[in-house]
């Protein structure tokens, strides 16, 4: 079983997962673009359990389908490290960049492709959805 640790920029907030990701995806929605300051948000879903160390500040956003997304970010440096979703009880979603691992698996899906910047090229084999296929 693989153990991975993701952390914020300053190292104060960390999450440890003890499994391979269930999946890796990219979101191009405008809310994720604003939240990350990037043109997309890569995220990996992991099965429970997970361990968090450090303090986090929480930001809750309601998605298009009405689901609550609970983002945990570092109150010191502001980095979003992970989030949970109100209607998903058995998975945690971790920002891929927080692993600082260039060998991390590539995304399998891309959501909100209707908001993808035209110069962003998806990796070969990535399945793109115009919106979230929930």
TrEMBL record:
Recorded superkingdom: Bacteria
A molecular-function term among this protein's GO annotations: metal ion binding
Pfam families from the UniProt entry: GFA
Keyword annotations from UniProtKB, A to Z: Lyase, Metal-binding, Zinc
Residue span(s) of domain CENP-V/GFA: 4-113
Record SUPFAM superfamilies: Mss4-like
Family: Belongs to the Gfa family.
Record's protein name: Aldehyde-activating protein
Organism: Pseudoduganella plicata
